[in-house]
Amino acid sequence: MTGWTADQLPTMTGTRVVITGATGGIGLITARELARVGATVVLAARNVDKARRAVAGMRGDFVVHRLDVADLDSVRDFAQSYTGNVDILINNAGVMDIPAARTAQGLDLQTATNYFGPFLLTNLLLPRLTDRVVTVGSQLHRFGKLNLNDLDWRTRKYNGLAVYESSKLAVVLFSLELQRRLTEAGNTVRSVVAHPGVARTNLVSHSPLGVINRLPFLVQDAERGALPLLYAATQNVPGNAYVGPDGLFSFTGYPMIRKPSRAAQNLTTARTLWHATATLTGA
C-alpha cells in the first residue's frame, strides 16, 4: 500500500506561501509543487538571480524577494518591505556541519541560518500569518544538546555537527512554544515541524555524513524528501505536529505524524529557550 504523495495535494488557488531556501533541493521541489496546484509562491532567497533561474519555465505564480535568513538585518528588511498577508510560511533554509563562521551581527552562522533567523522571521510575520508555519527539522535533533547560556557557541568548542544537532533541537522546541503561545492567545495559526528523513541533497556536502548519499537503502531522493514538507503545509495536521517519513527510524518513506525526542517536548526548556532567543535576536 502506498502512502500520501504530491498527487494528492489540494487546489491552493488564492493561497500565498513564503518559503526560504527554495533555490534547490527539497525547498525548490516544495515550491514547484505548491505553485503547480495554484498557490502564489514567494521565494525568499539570498541570491535572487539564482532563485529566478531555478523557477524559470516552471508552471505557476512565483515571486522572488531577497532574504538572507542568517542576517537578522536582512530578515527585518524583508519583513518590513513585504506587503500583504502570508497564509503559509515555510522555514526551509538550512546549512549543515559547516566550518565556524559569524554573521554580520556576530552570531554563529549555522545557528543563525537554522534557528535564529527563522525565529525572528516567524515572529515578524506572525501578525500577517493566516494558516500555519512549517519549520524544517531533522532527526538529528535527537542528538542535540542545548546550552541555554551559550546558544551562540561562544564559550564552547565549535563542532559543526553538534551545532547542527542543537540548532535542530531548538527548532522543534521553538515550534512547541510557538504553538503554546498561539493556542493561549486563541490564534488558529498552527506551528508544525517537518523533516525529510535522509534525503539525497547537497545539504551534507560539507559534512563527512555525505557518505550516506551513497547508501541507497538508507536514503531517498529529494522528491520523496519534500513530501513531509508538502504534507505539513497542506494537510489537516494538529498544531505542533512532527511530520516525517513513515519508514524505519523515519529515514525514508511516505509522510506521517511522528514523535520528536523527549527533550524536544520539554515545555520548560521551550519557554526558557524562547526568552533567551528573543533577547539574543531582539525579537
What can you see in these coordinates?
- The chain is of the alpha/beta class.
- The chain has a single domain, classed as NAD(P)-binding Rossmann-like Domain (Rossmann fold), CATH 3.40.50.
- Helices cover 35% and strands 16% of the residues.
- The chain contains eight helices and eight strands.
- Strands 3-2-1-4-5-6-7-8 form an eight-stranded mixed beta sheet, sandwiched between helices.
- Helix 3 (72-81) runs parallel beside helix 4.
- It is globular.
- 50% of the residues are buried.
Count all strands and give the number. 8
Q: Bin the helical content.
A: 25-40%
Could you tell me the mean pLDDT?
A: 92
Oligomerization status of the protein chains: single chain
Unreliable sequence segments: none
Name the strands of the widest sheet in spatial order: 3-2-1-4-5-6-7-8
Work out the radius of gyration. Answer: 17 Å
CATH architecture, by name, is 3-Layer(aba) Sandwich
Shape by Cα distribution: globular
Q: How many separate domains make up the residues?
A: 1
User: At the third CATH level, what is the topology name?
Assistant: Rossmann fold
CATH superfamily: NAD(P)-binding Rossmann-like Domain
Q: Key terms for this structure?
A:
283 residues, Rossmann fold, 8-stranded mixed beta sheet
What's the arrangement of secondary structure elements?
Elements: E1 16-20, H1 25-36, E2 40-45, H2 48-55, E3 61-66, H3 72-81, E4 86-91, H4 109-125, E5 129-136, H5 160-184, E6 190-194, H6 222-225, H7 227-234, E7 242-245, E8 255-258, H8 267-281
Helix pairs in contact: 3-4, 4-5, 4-8, 5-8
